[in-house]
Design goal:
6 strands; 6-stranded mixed sheet; Signal recognition particle alu RNA binding heterodimer, srp9/1; about 100 residues; about 20% helix
Length: about 100
């Protein structure tokens, strides 16, 4: 969980051992997409996925974000030493759904 200096909630990152192992095995391309209006907090839930050898996607991380995903992706790097093997990150950029820093 991430909070600012005033202890305001900024985000939450979750991944378990299986997710770390899957990312470690298939770090070359990471897909990130947001689902909005899915929870009562009205915060976007970002889903990080990789594609394994059979061409199926596997979730490797979940991020609930109130402000910016920068800090949470930095945490992902500290937990996944293979992050430097990412060759491509694909993100669905939809400015109408992106969280605003003013919220």
């Amino acid at each position: 969980m991430y909070a600012d200096s005033e202890k305001n909630f900024k985000g939450l990152f979750y991944h378990d051992e299986e997710m770390r192992n899957m990312f470690s095995a298939y770090p070359e391309i990471v897909f990130i997409d947001a689902t909005c209006k899915l929870n009562d907090l009205r915060l976007p839930l970002y889903v990080m996925m990789v594609v394994h050898g059979n061409g199926e996607s596997e979730i490797v991380g979940l991020m609930l974000v109130a402000d910016t995903i920068r800090q949470i992706t930095s945490y992902f790097k500290t937990q996944n030493p293979n992050w430097s093997q990412i060759n491509c990150t694909m993100v669905d950029k939809d400015l109408t759904r992106a969280p605003s820093a003013s919220r």
